[in-house]
Structures are given as structure tokens and as C-alpha cells.
Amino acid sequence: MATTTAPIAGSVTDARSYGTPGYRLYVLVMLTLVYTLNFIDRNLVNVIAQPIIQEFQLSDSQYGFLNGPPFAIFYALMGIPIAMAADRYNRVVIVAICISIWSLMTALCGLASSFAFLLIARIGVAIGEAGSTPPSNSILADYYTPKNRAAALAVFAMGVTIGSALANYFGGPIARHLNGPALQRLFDGWGWDWMVGITDWSQIAGWRAAFVVIGAPGLIIGLITLLTVKEPPRGYSDPPGTVRPERAGIRETLRELSGKSTFWTMALGASIISLAGYGLVGFQAPMVQRLHGVEHGAFAIQFGGPLAIVAAFGTFAGGMIVHRLTPRIPTAVALVPAIGALLAVPIYIFTFTRPTDEVFSVMRSAWCVGAFCHYMYLGSQYTIGQGVVSQRSRASAVAILLLMIALIGNGIGPLFVGWLSDLFMNMEMANAGTSAELTSQLCRNAVEVAKLAADQQSICRGAYGEGLKLSMITTTLFFIPAALCFYLSSRTLLRDMVARQV
């Protein structure tokens, strides 16, 4: 597929959108689907967290490590060079290749025979996913004019929360019902006798099937993207006078950003929100299971899916509110996320302190309101991230933004929540005056806990759940400095923005 060059100055581009309205909508939907798939595969591990923790006998810190630094580091390391390639070569081809890589590695997670195997497969997922978002942002910027980008990118950003929802609605039921014995009965019904005897199906856990079933279809999506999405001319939808861009390197992009304090304060705010967000999402299912006895499959349907859908509406609403308010409040793109982050703090704290008898009523409703406010920032981070640089540096600017979010948010968030959880668990056990033989390691082992006396079981289960709850409550406080960062970015926004929004 050949890359089309941008028109030179004086052409008839005249800041118009690329392609017909129908095809432009198709591209937006397709790239949003790709972004959604990205987050389905990424978030599946959160849906089935507790079974993984139990199978490999992990502490919360160990699980936080699995879900945090290795993924984030490789995501960050690969993101910038792939984004630089996207500023030079065919972006659609890059996106299609990356989809195939992360989908294959997701499926391999289901074959993990050890913690190390699972860790390596997760790193493979990170490498593939690193190359999708920057070129997708760059493609959409060339399909939509500056005044329409906030709305288009808000739709695109919904892939984060829609992907989380689908990870719950598909991953939860698959992990719950499609275990080894169920597969064996299925093969028996199909007459596949050779499959029945190929392994000991009683040892195949449902979480393994979930990785394979959800990861494999991405190979087809990658092929469809390659064959049906056209590479747009670079800079096509920019204002008149745009010339064919020279290739921008990462150093030049950094020089362009060096005087843009709007970018750095926004990026820090988005990273801090991501730190809290990745940490909360990574441990939300284990927390409710430990405190209220809602197992992972039921949580995925009753909580995980609805929360992600509401968060998607929050993402979309944030973009629409920005779009509506910008003509009257030019800094709305930074102020709306700040307000949403502040509102989320008391709502989340109220949510996490609900008793068991309010789990499916008050707790779920309050949690949805908090998620709606929390995710109002997503469209804004991309609008500001690429709006403060020239069009030839957009993909690299977004990659730098995602580098910060990956290292601070995904890299620290789950590990921080897990570390705090272990710390608070030990404190809870110390406060209960437990003897030396009642250790945190023992209390994390459900089989061993079942052998203890009733009072010891109560201490173990209480500390295991309360420690994680206190960790989650503490983590919500990070939304406060994040809101301050977005507010600071609003103070310099009008000076630094290159792409006009009105």
C-alpha cells in the first residue's frame, strides 16, 4: 500500500477533512475497534487477577509487578521508535503488524506454565501494543480538521473503556465457564476424540482459555485493517499553507516541546491519573472478592463490565463537553479533566467503604459515578498532546506522552497498590495480635486457610481484604495532584496550542 504525500502550499486542501463522510466514519470506527482490542487484551489480566494470584501463589506486590513495570518499560521502550517510524513510513501497515504481535502474545499467555512464562508473554503484548496508538492518532489527525479532532479523538479514546468492558463481558464468563472439563465435554459433543485424549483437561483453568479465545481474533482484525484503511496524505486536514513536512526526529520533537509547559503539566496530570487508574483497575476484582465474596466471573458481569461502559460514556462526555464549552471557555480542554478528577476522589472513597449488604446497590451505583468523572480526561490528553506541536511531530509527541503514562501510570500504579496492600495486610495482622505461624504468605493460600481454626480464618481473610481496601482508598488521593496539573496546563494552553479548536 503506497503512502500518499501531502499537498504543497497553495493547494485546494483548505483545512477540509479527508475522504467522504461515510468512509471517514468507517476509519474512525475501525481504529477505535483496534484501540478497543488493544485494551481488551491488556485488561484481561485484571479480570482474572485472583485466579492467577492463587494459581501461582503470588503476593499482591508480585502481581502488581506482573501487571506493572515489565509491561510498562517495554511498552515505553518500543513506543518511541515505532512512533518515529510512523512519522516516516506507512502508518496503516505499522498498526496492522502491531495488532498481530500483541494478539499472538495474548494467546500465548494462556499457555503459561510458570510465572516467568506469563511475564515474558505479557512483555510481548506490551511490545505489540506500543506501536498502535501513536500512528492511529496521526492517521485521525489527517482525516479530521482541527476543530473536529476533539470529538473524533474522544470517540477514539473510548476504546480504552469499551475495551475494558468487553474484557469483562467476554473474559469473565469464558474464565468462569470454559475450563478444562467444559472443553472436554465440548470436544466429546463434536466427536473430536483426538482432542479429548491430547491432555489432562481437568488441569486446564478457565483463565487460560480466556487468554487464547480473546487473543486469537486480533490476527483477523489486523488483516482487515491492512486491506481496508487508506493511508491519508500527511497534513491534509491542516489549515491552508501547509507544505509537505520534513521528517521529524525525536530530538526535534523534544526541542519543539521544550518551551511548551502546557504539554508537560498535562502529561504529568494524565500520568498521575493513570497511576491511580491502573492501580485501581488492576485490583478491583480481587478487592471485592476478598471483602464481599463476589468471585471473578460474577464481578466481571456485575461490576467490571458496567463500570467500563460508564467510563466510556465519561470519556465521550468529556470530549463532548470540551467541544461545546471551548467557544466560550477556550481552556475547557484542560479544565474539564481537572474538575472530573477532583469529583472522583470522595465518590471512590465512599464506594470502597460500603458494607457487604450494599455491594449490588449503593456500592455499584456510586462506583459508576466515580468512573464517569474519572475518565473525562482521556480525550483531552490526546487533543492537547498533539495540539501543541506541528503536524509532522504529532505521532512522536503522542509517543512521548504515552511514554510518561506508561512509566508513571502503568509502571508504578499496580506495583504501588500491591505493595501498599501487602503493607496494610501485615499491619492488620499485627493489630490483631496474631502469632508467628499465622503469616501473610499462609493467609494468601486459600487451601491452607481452610485448614485453620475459625478465628484464625477470620483474621486471615479480614487482613487479606482490608489491606487491599486501605490501599485502594489511599490511591484515590492521587487524583488531587493530577487535577492541579491539568489546571496548571490551562494557564498556558492558549499560548502553546498550534492547532486551533474553534
Give the key terms.
single chain; mainly alpha; 502 residues; Growth Hormone, Chain: A
What does this structure look like?
The chain is an all-alpha fold. The chain has one domain: Growth Hormone, Chain: A, CATH 1.20.1250. Helix content is 75%, strand content 0%. It has 23 helices and no strands. The longest helix is centred in the last third of the chain and has 38 residues. It starts with 20 loop residues before the first helix and ends in a 6-residue tail after the last helix. The N terminus is likely disordered.
Helix proportion of residues, in percent?
A: over 70%
Mean pLDDT across residues: 83
**Number of extended strands:** 0
Contiguous helical run count? 23
CATH superfamily membership, which one? MFS general substrate transporter like domains
| CATH fold-type name | Growth Hormone, Chain: A
In CATH terms, what is the architecture? Up-down Bundle
User: What is the count of structural domains?
Assistant: 1
Radius of gyration: 23 Å
Q: Please report which band the strand proportion falls in: under 5%, 5-15%, 15-25%, 25-35%, 35-45% or over 45%.
A: under 5%
Distance between the termini: 34 Å
The CATH class assignment is Mainly Alpha
The description of the largest β-sheet is: none
- Give the SSE order as H and E letters: HHHHHHHHHHHHHHHHHHHHHHH
In short:
The protein has 502 residues and is an all-alpha fold.
What is the topological layout?
Layout: H1 21-47, H2 49-55, H3 60-66, H4 69-86, H5 91-109, H6 115-130, H7 133-143, H8 146-177, H9 180-190, H10 193-196, H11 206-215, H12 218-228, H13 250-258, H14 261-292, H15 296-325, H16 332-352, H17 359-374, H18 378-387, H19 394-431, H20 440-443, H21 446-449, H22 454-476, H23 479-496
